[in-house]
Amino acid sequence: MVVQQHVLNWLYSVLTSEYHDVNRTYNDVAQALSQYPSLSPRTDVHTFPNGASALLLHLSGTIPVLFRGTTYRFPISLWVPHAYPREAPLVYVTPTENMVVRPGQHVDPQGQVYHPYLVGWSTFWDKSTILDFLAILRDVFAKEPPVIARQQGRPTPIQQTPTPPPVPPLPPDLAPRPATQPPASAGHETSRPPPPPPKPGSRVQQPQQLASPTPPPQHSGPPLPHLPPKASRPMSYAGNPAAQIPPEQHTRPGPSRYESAPPLPPQQSPPPPQERRSFPLQAQPPPIHGPPQQGPPAHAGFPPGPPQAQFSQHDPRRMSTFSPPQPYGTPPPNWRQPPAAVQPQAQPKPPPPPDLMDDDLTLSIPSPSNIPAPPIPPNPEKDALLHQLAQTLHSMRQRSRAQNESSLAGLQAQRTAMLAAMNTIQAESAQLSQLSALLTSNTNILKDSIHKADGVIESSARHPAPNIDELLVAPTVVGNQLYELVAEERALADAIFVLGRAVERGRIAPGTFARMTRSLAREWYLKKALVRKIGNGMGLAQM
Fold this sequence. Notes:
The chain has helices at residues 5-18, 22-35, 116-119, 130-143, 157-160, 181-191, 202-211, 217-220, 247-251, 273-278, 291-294, 305-314, 380-460, 468-471, 477-505, 510-538, and strands spanning 40-47, 53-67, 70-80, 90-93, 99-101, 147-149. By secondary structure, the chain is of the alpha+beta class. The strands form 2 sheets. The protein has a 4-stranded antiparallel β-sheet. Strand 2 and strand 3 (70-80) form a beta hairpin. The longest helix has 81 residues, at 380-460. Residues 6-151 form the UEV domain. Belongs to the ubiquitin-conjugating enzyme family. UEV subfamily.
């Protein structure tokens, strides 16, 4: 892509101020901008690790990288130093808000890029360019992405966990009542105090104790009356709560705690779903003294229907386990005295209830210190992160194991080849050692021979030159005679040949030639016959 002319003009004007090699820097930066249009040049102040600052040319933008078949654009920041190209550029990875730096072999946690190409830049500065390094950087990022997506914050636990059920209403005895009711029933309560009934069985008190951590019933109001004939069942007390309470309890004055409801105990707060499922059904009903406060007595003029319907709305799941409601209008005569056959086992009479009219107007709330804190529910976000981390580590381990197993075959073959080469090298080294020893021995022998030859040459220089005739001596006298005869015969033949050439050239007269030739030929013939005779005597081949 062609870079716009005004950008090139601005680039050249910026480089001419402080850069050492303007033309080379201009050429390299222009090529990089032409190849990567996503890079934008500008000048910024860069602070070096030693604290020094300088106004440098800054190329910022993204470079396309093909990673697993998809092209990604990784943000980078490239600073060109003033001594460029003799100094390598500074390259950083600049993640966006949705990314974080992924440290690797070539990127540190601060985002700075390291590579052998940058290390050797100062040595091969004449061959190193920004464009070549960006191409190398793309290959590096294709193998190790420099950034990863930032982990998005998980939704709040309210969106992950199911919505807890609404806070249940206050027990009826804790709910505020109109101020006009206590005086109306005060006279009736003082005129007819209820006698202390026997203590109910433990099976009936257990739901009351689990439902609320308030003080015992004898301290918060009149004691419970005798159970009806169906009191032996754990859940039967909730069937008709109004019919099981004496009329005196409906008209008794409410203490001061009715005017302001106390805070809910810890057990009333919505527990985690696991804890709610673990409680038994007997612990779910409201306290036994709650319904009488919701439903006024029949003689007060209220219809009997709404209190029972209102109680069933608090927990409709118990409709199937409660006994059918009984109409209550005027209290039956045997209400306060159940049949003797169904009375519980005789127990010591509890102490008389305190007079609520004489008590203080403040209610002592039990300290929550003696109440065990509910167990901490599991954190689904933490569990999900741990599960995701375990899966990531497992996948990384599997990939690393697969890579190691795939490279084992090549490494094993390379090891075998290296062992064979090592054995060959060791054998050749042994042979070379033997050859070196042999050459050393021969060199020593040669040096000794040369030294002796030098001594012979020096000694022979002082002796006179020998006669060649004395050196060529036959082993026998006949042999010496044969050497001499052969030499004389050849000399005579040469003399006759020379005389013939001299006659041809006119140097001697023909008569002289004839006379000398006859004399030499006669002597030559005799010499030749004698040579043949000696040769036959010595057993030599015919000449």
